[in-house]
Amino acid sequence: MKGGNLPVLIVAAALLLVACGPSGGAGSGRASQSEAATVEVTATPTEVSLPQVEGPVAGADVSNTQLVALGEIVYEQYCASCHGAELEGEANWKVRDENGFLPAPPHDETGHTWHHPDEQLFEITKIGTEAYVGRGYRSNMIGFGDQLDDTEIWAVLAYIKSEWPARIQRAQPK
Ligand code: HEC
User: Fold this and answer.
1) Which amino acid residue places its CA nearest to atom 12 of ligand 1?
2) What DSSP character marks residue 49?
3) CB 53 within 8 A of CB 151
4) What is the SS3 assignment for 142?
5) Model pLDDT, residue 50
6) Buried b / exposed e along 48-81 (16+ C-beta atoms within 10 A)
7) How many angstroms separate the alpha carbon of residue 174 from the centre of ligand 1?
8) Is 77 in the pocket of ligand 1 (CB under 6 A)?
């Protein structure tokens, strides 16, 4: 999502749809090109649909509703495939697979994400578990530092924390 690629993707998808539409066949090329131009113009305003986060962000601030809203989108796009749409993690997440890899743990109160302070969660998300643990540790938790900027990482952590009950939020080490 770096540099706001989302609108570009939407435009590209719209163009693809137009290109693959039922109008195909000889002679229709010109018509679908002008259709494509119209789609591009009307798609531009979707840029504002990404929650805007005002001011500098230096933490996973659960009370910042803009940050949490952005984080929910980041979570769905970058984390849910492994950690689950409801933050539930993968089945048997405490048991290593036949190759020695741990499955993705839950991020809800049943996991141990909340046992770590924000700064630690930030580092893990940014550089990945292999780099974080070091000593040749192998893990499927990649670092997202080249796909997400710092605000987006704080945002996704703020979203995860916002899903915790108040008592778990209070119990998280600072
Ligand atoms: C390809 C699957 C995959 C994706 C996608 C993924 N993770 Fe993970 N994640 C894992 C696995 C597997 C682990 C456990 C790694 C280990 O301990 O070896 C993990 C562990 C973590 C941990 C450490 C949790 C703890 O309790 O120690 C954090 C934090 C985390 N992931 C955050 C995220 C965030 C935020 C995203 C989205 C930006 C994300 N992950 C996307 C697979 C994934």
Assistant:
1) 104
2) G
3) yes
4) strand
5) 75
6) eeeeebeeebeebbbebebbbbbbbbbbeebbee
7) 20
8) no
pTM of the full predicted structure?
A: 0.78
**10 Cβ inside 6 Å of ligand 1:** no
Ligand 1, atom 27, lies closest to the CA of 113
| Mutation test residue for ligand 1: of 141, 144, 161, the one with most atoms within 8 Å of CB | 141
Distance CA(95)–CA(129), nearest Å, equals: 17
Q: Which domains does the chain have, with CATH numbers?
A: 5-48 (no CATH), 65-171 (1.10.760.10)
**Dihedral sign of CA atoms 143, 144, 150, 154 in order:** negative
Question: pLDDT by residue (tens digit) across 12-45?
Answer: 444 444 444 344 444 444 444 545 455 555 545 4
Give pLDDT tens digits for 123-159.
999 999 999 999 999 999 999 999 999 999 999 999 9
Cα separation, 37 vs 39, whole angstroms: 5
Q: For the chain, how many helices (H) and strands (E)?
A: 8, 0
Q: For residue 163, which amino acid is it?
A: E
**Measured between alpha carbons, how far is 71 from 151 in angstroms, rounded to an integer?**
9
The chain-wide mean pLDDT, for the chain, equals 82
Spatial distance between the Cα atoms of 105 and 127, rounded to a whole number of angstroms = 17
Q: How far apart are the first and last CA of the chain?
A: 28
